[in-house]
Hints:
Strand order of the largest sheet: 2-1-3-4-5
Structural class: alpha/beta
Oligomer: single chain
Strand content: 15-25%
Number of strands: 5
Shape: globular
Order of helices and strands: EHEHHEEEH
Distance between the termini: 22 Å
CATH class: Alpha Beta
Amino acid sequence: MTNSIPSVAIAESCTGGLVMARIVATPGAGDWFKGGLVAYDKEVKSELLGVKSGPVVTSAAAQQMARSVRELLGADLGIATTGEAGPDPEEDVPVGTLFVGVADRKSVRVHHIVLSGDPDEIRASAAELALLHLRRRAGLDVRLRAG
């Protein structure tokens, strides 16, 4: 870690690795990006990240995912995405529902939004929002760009 940039770990569900792909395409990311995982399956979320059984497109799931990935990888910050990109709704939540969790050593904040578009557009917008929250929380002055 250099220039006091906090180290970062990512747990992705609905974004399927898009956030991490954007991060690793950024020069210098190796100085602060610890790594991450795509936890698409409910059992993976439960077994690896401690998400309770039941609906996973929730604020509580995003909170637990962010907290757990930060702890698992020993990072200063954990970022998590969980949502419903479609095309069909599941878990009684509308397509486009997104939760982004941001955890530091003291607390977790969850951001909720409902996006519109087709599944690819929703995933891309969700990844952008996760990166926006990462930049804001970490004070990153890097431009995370498409890879």
